[in-house]
Amino acid sequence: MGCGVMSPRRLGAALLTLLTFARPCCAEESAHPREESNWLAVSKGPGANGCLGSDELRAAVRTRLVTVGSPAESGLLVQVDWAALADEGFRAIIELREGEKPVGARTLTSRQATCDELGQAVAIAVALAVDMRLSLTQAASVPEAPVARTEAPKASPAPAPVASSGLERAPTRPSSEPPPEMKRAIALRGGAAMAVGLLPELALGPSIGGVLHPWRRVSFDLSASLFPFEVVTPLRSGRGQVSYQAGLTTALACAALADAPSVALFACGGLSVGAIRYVPSGEIQGSGAGLRVVANPTSSLLSKLRLGGAWAAVLSLGLAVPLVRQRFVYSDTSGTQVELFKMPSVFGVFELGLEYELTNRTKAPTKGRARDHTRTESWQ
Predict the structure, then answer these.
(1) 3-state DSSP: the chain helix, strand, coil percent, rounded to 5?
(2) Which of 224, 305, 302 is CA-nearest to residue 269?
């Protein structure tokens, strides 16, 4: 069949048919403009080919968005780098940028054999970041409500509140109050003491003392320990003995190593001064009783367990180094010097007791103190 010239009637019918089928298509495109797809990019390392691609990840993010809007409207550029781990699993590094400015980064890992679970986690993380930025952007674009004016020329009502997205909170002006202050604290302490090496045998006795806390983590301790129970050293001949008693006064400066609400630990150092009383009897009775002065640099470790209120349990473990090691000797019937006891180069003093705080450490009133609770966007 040859080609001829189309008649005007047929030409009009063809144009009408073309316009009828073309209008719905154009209307659909104008009602649903194509979304920009360059806001998210994906790269895959060796072994990560099974992870979500760009189109799949964009679709997964859109299904999880809460805020109405296109992810491209947020202004964020998202880069997701997939990589397979050396042993088993996958890693995803998510980087957010706003133009050329880095906003934040996050690394997610999975030990699963497939990338499916990690892909869902990445989609949720990106959707949260996009949702937050969309909410902030839309909240900033809400126009301020008009201010109603009254007839009075000098009075004007307060402006109507602007709708909030729930992600921001207005800052409050910080108070100009001075920082909290600490009052000095004074405490009394009492308990039992034990000395190992001060006398020929283990010595027990009471201990009392006082504590001054000029600052929270520093204290000064002054204590006195008395060992009234006699410790006896018999003579070799069996015809006599020497009995001993002792007392110590110790002054320490302590610094807190740890200070929790219920437990505190202090390291202390100072000096202890005291005396040893000895009373001979029997074969050496004629020599008479006497006193020997002892002075000892002392260090100790003190732990405190707060029992509630003003009470606390205290345990002190101390070591002392005598400046002069006292030596106790006597002469037997033949005139030979016999040593009964000589102080060691280091002896220990341990205390266990209760402490009662007379003046509590208090802080300055905090009424009216306010903090800035402004929430800022952070995606680190």
Answers:
(1) 20, 45, 40
(2) 302
- Write the class of the CATH domain 185-357: mainly beta
Q: What are the tokens at 269? A: 């150092």
Can you list the residues of the chain whose pLDDT is less than 50?
1-6, 8, 11-12, 14-35, 162-168, 170, 176-182, 362-378, 380
Cβ within 8 Å of residue 293, ≥6 positions away: 273, 274, 275
What does the domain layout of the chain look like in residue ranges? 40-139, 185-357
- C-beta atoms surrounding 96 within 10 Å: 21
- 3-state class (DSSP) for residue 104: strand
Q: How far apart are CA 278 and CA 267, in angstroms?
A: 33
CA dihedral defined by 130, 132, 137, 143, rounded to 10 degrees? 140
Cα radius of gyration rounded to whole Å, the chain: 43
Q: Say whether 69 sits in a helix, a strand or coil.
A: coil
- Does the global pTM surpass 0.85? no
Rounded CA-CA distance 225/227 in Å is: 7
Residue for token pair 């072994």: 47
Helix (H) or strand (E) holding 14: helix 8-31
Distance, in Å, from the CA atom of 276 to the CA atom of 245, rounded to the nearest integer, reads: 6
- Give dist(CA 314, CA 214) in Å, integer: 19
Name the class of domain 40-139.
alpha beta
Cα 271 from chain centroid (whole Å): 36
